Amino acid sequence: MLVYRYDNQDYQDGEVIFSRGDHADGLTEIEREVEARLRAASAEGEPIRRDSLYTWQDEDFARLAGSFKRARFLYELEVNDADIRHVGDLDHYSAAKDAAKLGQPYARHLEAYWTQRTGARRVEILAASARVVRKLSF
Questions:
Q1: First and final CA of the chain: distance in angstroms?
Q2: Which pLDDT tens digit goes with each residue over 59-100?
Q3: What is the dihedral of CA 25, 44, 47, 13, to 10 degrees?
Q4: Comparing C-alpha atoms, which of 57, 92, 62 is closest to residue 74?
Q5: Residues near 84 by Cβ (< 8 Å), separated by ≥ 6?
Q6: CB contact set of 29 (below 8 Å; sequence gap of 6+)
Q7: Beta-strand relationship, 130-136 and 16-17
Q8: Alpha carbon distance 25, 32 (integer Å)
Q9: If we measure between CA atoms, which residue out of 118, 92, 102 comes closest to residue 37?
């Protein structure tokens, strides 16, 4: 499966890459709250969200998100099906975050992240590893 990733690390074509660690430290306070509850909402949620390489299904969205994060590089990657840990729809994560900001319950959005897809383009593929196909330009 071809996926996309923005990153500040300079990888070479053909290189196999892995997660460089948990991303939770870089989140806002409300995002950390939602992230903790999201991880708790699935039996495998903690290791999946903590240890996976975050990639995107949609190149245009990866490009947009990477520009907001001021990433230096955009990559096209290949992920083996056996290395896919979870495919999650970020619309559910965003709905949970929006509800949390308003002090509203959001457990249903967390459940939906683990079980449903809306068909939106903000789909993240969490993988054990991926191979760099090529470096793209922003």
A1: 21
A2: 999 999 999 989 999 999 999 999 999 999 999 999 999 999
A3: -100
A4: 62
A5: 1, 125, 126, 127, 128
A6: none
A7: antiparallel
A8: 8
A9: 92
